[in-house]
Amino acid sequence: MSLTATEQDILNTIGKLKEASSTFVARQVMISPGYAEYLCRYIAKKGYLELTTKGTYRLTQSGRKLLISQGGLWDKEIIKTMAGELAKELGKTLPFVERRRGKRVTLSQAKAAPEIKIKEAFINPAEEVELESDLGKGPKEELASSKDLDQTLNKLKKLRE
Amino acid sequence: MAKKRVKSKKKLITKKPSEEVFARGKGLDVGTAFIECAEKKGEKIIFRRQRNAFFEIEYSDFTKRILSKSRVKYIQKKDKLYVVGDEAIKFANMFNRDTRRPLSRGIISPSEKEALPMVELLIKSVAGAPKYEGEIIYHSVPGEPVDADFDVVYHQNILSQFLRKMGYTPKPINEGLAIILSELGEEKFTGIGLSWGGGMVNVCLACLSVPVFTFSVTKAGDWIDLQVAKAVNETASRICAIKESSLDLTKTEQLSKIETALSIYYNNLIEYVLAHIKREFEETKKMPRIDKPIKMVVSGGTALPRGFLSRFKQLLKKADFPFEVGEVVMASQPLFSVAKGALIAAITDEEKRKVKPHR
Q1: How does pLDDT run across A36-63, given as a tens digit for each residue?
Q2: Bridge partners of B193?
Q3: How far is residue B277 CA from its own chain's centroid?
Q4: Does the predicted interface ipTM exceed a cut of 0.85?
Q5: How many CB pairs under 8 A join A and B?
Q6: Helix and strand totals (H; E) in chain B
Q7: In this complex, is the C-beta atom of A31 within 8 Å of any C-beta atom belonging to chain B?
Q8: Set of chain B residues whose Cβ sits within 8 Å of the Cβ of A159
Q9: If you ran DSSP here, which 8-state letter would residue B316 be given?
C-alpha cells in the first residue's frame, strides 16, 4: 500500500529512532502534534506501526520491510560505499556499454564529453521577482469602533496575568 | 525670549506625534479569497481588504493607459498585465473565464508561477509600511489539513519572509484561534472558532485562549463554486459572483438550478466539517474539562449568505456530538474577525514589549 510523503517521513523518523512518541514525531516532521497522532494511528491501522505500552510507536515487521524496500533505513555511509562499488563495476564495463546518440563510445571519449552543469545556488523565492504595479492608493478602508476590542484586550491581559 | 523657548518646548511635549494615534501592532489575514489587514487608530479599527485574485490580459500601452484611467488595479510583468482585486472578477465574467488565484486551498499555490510576487504586492497594498522598524504583525496561518497531503510550513515561512522584508516582526497565528480571540472574550476565550474561507474551513477548539486542537479541511467556498459550476455548466467565477451577491439559504421554493445546486453543496460542506469536528473530539486524548456547553463562533466569507447560520444549527442538531454545544453565533464582523483576532494578539505582544525593561 502506498504512503503519502508525510506518512513516509513519519515512518522514516520512527525507523531511525526505533521508537518515538507522536509529539516527538510532530517536532521532527514539523506538523502539529494532533495531526502527527492522527497519522501515526492511521499508519498503525495499516499495519506498519504498533503502539507500545509506553504510548510510543515502533515499526512492525511489515513497516520495516516497507522501509527497507524504499531505502528508508539505510545508512548514508552504506549507500556511499555501495554507490562507490557500483561505480567501479560500471567503470569497468563503460567503454563497451555506454552509447551516446546510437554510437558506441570509449571511456576516454566519454570523459571528453561536455559536463552538465547544475545550478546549485539557492534562489530565495521571496526575493526572486519585482513587479511593476499600479495598485492606486491601496484598498478602501472600513472603520469600526474599537470599544469591544479594548474590552477584549483587557480580558486577555487579565487572563494572562 | 527664554519664556518663548519654554512655551515652544511645552508645545512640543504636549503635541502627540502622529504615530501615537495608532496602536502598535497589526493583524493580517492571508486567505485564499481575500487578504485583510486590521490596525487600531484611536477609538477606531481600520480594516483594509483586497481580493486575492487576478486576471491576465495581454499588455499594450493602450490597455495599460485605459486601466490606469479607469483606476483598475493592475500588476505588469513583461508582456502581461494582471488585473487584481475585485475588478479581476468583473473582467473574468466579461470574458467568461475564471480568475486565477495566488493561493489555492489556503496556501501559496504550487501550480501558480506568478503566486509569490503577486501575494507580496497584495500584502504590501493592504498592510502598508510598518509604523516603526520591527513592528509586530500577526499573520493568519491555516491549521494542518486533515484531508489533503500537504503541510503549511512553506506557506508560513514565505509569508514571514515577505513581512520581514517589509520591516515587520512577523508572528503566525492559527486562523481559528484568531476568531476565538476576537469573539469569545466573554467566554474567557473558550470555545470553537470556525473560519469558513474560500480555500479552507479552519477549526480551533481553545480553552482559556490555549488551543486544544486545530485543523483545517480543504473543502470550502471555492470547492462549492467548482462543484456547482460543473453541475450546471457555468464558470466558477460566475457562481462565486452569484453566491456572494444574492444567495439566500432560507429560500425553499422556486429555486433556480444554480440556487438548488448551491444549497445542496452547502449542506454537504457543513456536514463534512461537522463530521471532522466530531472525529477530532473523539480522537483527542487529553481533552480539558469544560464545565459549560461549548460556544461556537462562525465566521468567514463562505458563511455570509443569508440563512447560513440557521442551516448550520439545523445540521448541528442532527450531528449527535460527543459534547454539549452551547450558543452558536455569527462573528460580529465575519469578514474581518481573523484580522481582528490577529490584531488583538499583536497589540498584546506590543504591550508586553513596552513593559519589558531594556537590557
Answers
A1: 888 899 899 989 999 988 889 999 988 8
A2: B204, B297
A3: 20
A4: no
A5: 142
A6: 12, 15
A7: yes
A8: 188-189, 208-209
A9: H
